[in-house]
Amino acid sequence: MPDKSRIFFYSLLAFVGGILAGSFFDIPKTAVLAAALVCVALIAIFFRKGSRLVNFKITLASFLIIFFLLGVSRYNAVHSKQLTLTKIAEASARIIDPAKKHPIKVALYGYITGEPATKGDKQQFVFLAKEMDALSRRIGINEQVLITARPYPKYEYGQNLKVFGEIKLPQNPEDFDYKAYLAKDDIFTVSYYPEISRGDFNLGAYEKIKIGFFRGIFKVKNSFEASISRSVHEPNAAFINGILLGSRAEIPADVKNDFSRTSTTHILAISGYNITIIAMIFSWFFLLFFRRPIAFWFSAAGIFIFAVLTGAQASVVRAAIMGVLVLLAQREGRLSDPRNALVLTGALMVFISPRILRYDIGFQLSFAATIGLIYAAPLIKRYFEKLPSFFNFRETFVMTLSAQFFVLPLLIFYFKNLSLVSIPANIIVLPIIPFAMLFGALTGVAGLILPFLGRLIGYFAWLVSAFELEVIKLFAKPSWAAVSIQFNWYAVILAYAAIIVFLIWLNRRNKRKEEART
To answer: Who contacts 414 (Cβ-Cβ below 8 Å, separation ≥6)?
Structure first.
């Protein structure tokens, strides 16, 4: 019989499975309720009959199905939630006369939540609407709208605004579910080039504190980025800002393409995959100076500061939690210890935001990479013991191979691209990233204090970053560096089934070798 730890693990997996099923299939509430009642009845009948194995199995199966149904119910509850602005957008789409084109326009009052992003001749920002004009009076709402505005005037986080314009439902371009991409962050409506003016409503005490805190964080971040840009030539400055703070707006298109072809884009984006790798880099760096227990706390603090400086958005916070889990697993040094913590964290994340399980690429990649580092790395490490440990090469190789192994099916599914040079490119570039981050951080800080000192240290930051950019450019140059390949969901499931079977076989093989030695 499984112990309590395993029952807890299977229960959480069942709950997550229920949310996943709810995201793919429309399961009626009546069916969920009927199945739950049957399971409760089975538990009541067989739980009383003692501890016979068959009774226990029926009871346990019923118990797990209830958790599965709870997951389905949680997704249905979020998915079926009716929003005021969504209803308005749907009504506007129905009644617009193509000849007259008189859309429904509404006045919204709220503030900018998150950093505005400039993209060519436009800027976008998420607007949190707190009030809305309706029938000559204001009503309270609490919904997010993605606003697309002209490039000027520049808007800032926390600005109190009045937005007057048409509210629309987002439209999906070909081969991309844009509606789901926005929905995972609780954005269900958009507005293009509305009239924007100063708002006139009062914020609550909590929101004032929150806005003040993050406004200060963003000012520090912007000053830091500007300091690096003054001290280091482009595109190296944009690359350094990317690996330190996730800023990608200034990176040239050809450089981004090189990163894509070599599957090293994770270095530039503050995604779960990126922070998972950074967590390991932090750990390696602090282990040079401290024992493992102390290095763990320094590394966890480094990830927290890293997440705050990038704005502590939901996706970054989720990724940071996954990164800390990697460190925890590494500190414990055993495969089974972090298992429940990993699935508990994932279950909490999808409970809070159920849509991320299916639609948040960053969450999926971070989870897959973390599983690879926890489960695959210890199994394959023994096969690379002859590799040199100079500059932590052996550990970096195993770490990279394990993470790439587990994210590969998802990368192919989403990006329809397979990089044939990913492993060697990552192995060469990743060990240098800590030095680029170190010199980049010193450049930014020194440039804020004394510009001349910032430029002096910036030469070292430029040298390290130039080496990395040239390596990535070199690997991206061959026509065969990346090939086009497509996966559907069935292929993804089969790929992960094959990976799991392979790891089970490898684990048994390793155990047989250990038994033969003893």
So the answer is: 361
